């Protein structure tokens, strides 16, 4: 019988990022494909029937596939330089839960599947929760096929290289019908459970959040030969976005705004950039507040671009409104787990995307560092096993 921490050790060397630290595992890249093969082998070892849907999400069925299944899982990809737990903990816990359920003589009375979503972090193609957005039709399939990674590879080409037909990308009504309910176990991405001295909890809601691309264009020129007054330097309005993001989010309770990625072109120390792209991640408690924060940042960006004689184009790359997890399923979890704390989360999840179509819930495992999307992300082995035990209890309860 496997433990979640033992299974994490099995994949500890896959996708280590020696430059950034942590892990870089991105949708359909060599590393993620290796992890998918590993998962497939583990599922097959357990007698599960592994299938890949048209969007590249991996399903492992315990018994015959069918509608209205109890489904659990998460994702195997990471942000660039991410931690070991965000995503993989939910996948290894699902495998460990199968072992524990089998050991106690569990027999699925309704269809039962593990589900691994593709490209949850958007670390390669820029759109978070891509596999679940495609499955639910929350992203247009043609637009998705045209998404490109930083090397110019389209999603269509990437899935083709992974042996899938890009024509199969898009809303999958049958797969949706198959999910009767989805429970995602995840490492907590803050200090909520640490502060409550609780090893596990469950999710109450997810902040409204989205990603916006700000593209500034100016005039590329020589860093030494161009007088300051003659410049149209897009780095100036870009730096204003960073400051405006902090300013706008600081004035609204619970709002977050981050510029974590900036790309000057051509990107030379002695070159005034001709263009700068940056990506804003903004989140808040509700739709109107999130939109207001982004509008304030956009207005500052426009003013700064104009002052420098630069042009600005803003594109919304993805967006999702506040998610309130299914009340009925939450009640079932609370009853099964004996009143564990329920916490809101600022992080996005496939369970949040699916929540508009099917009942979903999340189990959180305490993270003593409170850090996530970085190598310091952590969960103690004992807490991981408490997470598996909780998942086992919940899955058993839902198998009616
Ligand atoms: C994904 O983990 C996100 O919340 O950005
Ligand atoms: Mn994440
Ligand atoms: Mn995650
Ligand atoms: Mn996520």
UniProtKB/TrEMBL annotation:
<protein>
    <submittedName>
        <fullName>Allantoate amidohydrolase</fullName>
    </submittedName>
</protein>
<dbReference type="GO" id="GO:0046872">
    <property type="term" value="F:metal ion binding"/>
</dbReference>
<feature type="binding site">
    <location>
        <position position="86"/>
    </location>
    <ligand>
        <name>Zn(2+) 1</name>
    </ligand>
</feature>
<feature type="binding site">
    <location>
        <position position="211"/>
    </location>
    <ligand>
        <name>allantoate</name>
    </ligand>
</feature>
<feature type="binding site">
    <location>
        <position position="373"/>
    </location>
    <ligand>
        <name>Zn(2+) 2</name>
    </ligand>
</feature>
<keyword id="KW-0862">Zinc</keyword>
<dbReference type="Pfam" id="PF01546">
    <property type="entry name" value="Peptidase_M20"/>
</dbReference>
<keyword id="KW-0479">Metal-binding</keyword>
<dbReference type="InterPro" id="IPR002933">
    <property type="entry name" value="Peptidase_M20"/>
</dbReference>
<dbReference type="InterPro" id="IPR010158">
    <property type="entry name" value="Amidase_Cbmase"/>
</dbReference>
<keyword id="KW-0378">Hydrolase</keyword>
<feature type="binding site">
    <location>
        <position position="121"/>
    </location>
    <ligand>
        <name>Zn(2+) 2</name>
    </ligand>
</feature>
<feature type="binding site">
    <location>
        <position position="186"/>
    </location>
    <ligand>
        <name>Zn(2+) 1</name>
    </ligand>
</feature>
<feature type="binding site">
    <location>
        <position position="86"/>
    </location>
    <ligand>
        <name>Zn(2+) 2</name>
    </ligand>
</feature>
<feature type="binding site">
    <location>
        <position position="283"/>
    </location>
    <ligand>
        <name>allantoate</name>
    </ligand>
</feature>
<feature type="binding site">
    <location>
        <position position="75"/>
    </location>
    <ligand>
        <name>Zn(2+) 1</name>
    </ligand>
</feature>
<feature type="binding site">
    <location>
        <position position="270"/>
    </location>
    <ligand>
        <name>allantoate</name>
    </ligand>
</feature>
<dbReference type="GO" id="GO:0016813">
    <property type="term" value="F:hydrolase activity, acting on carbon-nitrogen (but not peptide) bonds, in linear amidines"/>
</dbReference>
<comment type="similarity">
    <text>Belongs to the peptidase M20 family.</text>
</comment>
<dbReference type="InterPro" id="IPR036264">
    <property type="entry name" value="Bact_exopeptidase_dim_dom"/>
</dbReference>
């Amino acid at each position: 019988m496997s433990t979640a921490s033992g299974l994490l050790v099995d994949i500890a060397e896959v996708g280590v990022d020696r430059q950034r630290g942590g892990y870089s595992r991105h949708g359909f890249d060599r590393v993620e494909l290796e992890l998918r093969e590993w998962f497939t082998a583990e599922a097959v070892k357990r007698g599960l029937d592994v299938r890949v849907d048209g969007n590249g999400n991996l399903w492992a069925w315990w018994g015959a596939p069918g509608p209205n299944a109890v489904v659990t899982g998460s994702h195997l990809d990471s942000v660039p330089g991410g931690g070991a737990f965000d995503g993989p903990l939910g996948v290894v816990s699902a495998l460990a839960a199968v072992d524990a359920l089998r050991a106690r003589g569990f027999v699925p009375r309704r269809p039962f599947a593990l589900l691994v979503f593709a490209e949850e972090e958007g670390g390669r193609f820029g759109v978070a929760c891509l596999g679940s957005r495609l499955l639910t039709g929350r992203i247009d399939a043609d637009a998705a096929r045209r998404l490109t990674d930083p090397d110019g590879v389209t999603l269509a080409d990437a899935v083709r290289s992974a042996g899938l037909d890009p024509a199969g990308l898009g809303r999958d009504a049958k797969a949706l019908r198959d999910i009767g309910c989805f429970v995602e176990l995840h490492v907590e991405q803050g200090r909520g459970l640490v502060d409550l001295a609780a090893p596990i909890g469950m999710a109450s809601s997810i902040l409204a959040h989205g990603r916006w691309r700000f593209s500034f264009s100016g005039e590329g020129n020589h860093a030494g030969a161009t007088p300051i007054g003659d410049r149209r330097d897009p780095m100036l309005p870009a730096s204003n976005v960073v400051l405006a993001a902090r300013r706008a989010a600081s004035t609204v309770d619970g709002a977050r705004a981050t510029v974590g990625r900036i790309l000057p072109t051509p990107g030379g120390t002695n070159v005034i950039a001709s263009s700068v792209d940056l990506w804003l991640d903004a989140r808040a408690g509700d739709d109107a507040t999130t939109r207001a924060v982004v509008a304030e940042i956009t207005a500052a960006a426009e003013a700064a671009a104009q002052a420098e004689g630069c042009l600005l184009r803003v594109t919304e790359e993805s967006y999702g409104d506040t998610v309130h997890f299914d009340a009925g399923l939450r009640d079932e979890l609370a009853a099964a787990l004996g009143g564990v704390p329920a916490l809101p989360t600022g992080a996005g999840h496939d369970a949040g995307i699916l929540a508009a179509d099917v009942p979903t819930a999340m189990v959180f495992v305490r993270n003593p560092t409170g850090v996530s999307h970085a190598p310091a992300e952590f969960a103690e082995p004992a807490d991981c096993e408490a997470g598996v035990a909780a998942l086992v209890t919940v899955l058993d309860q839902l198998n009616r």
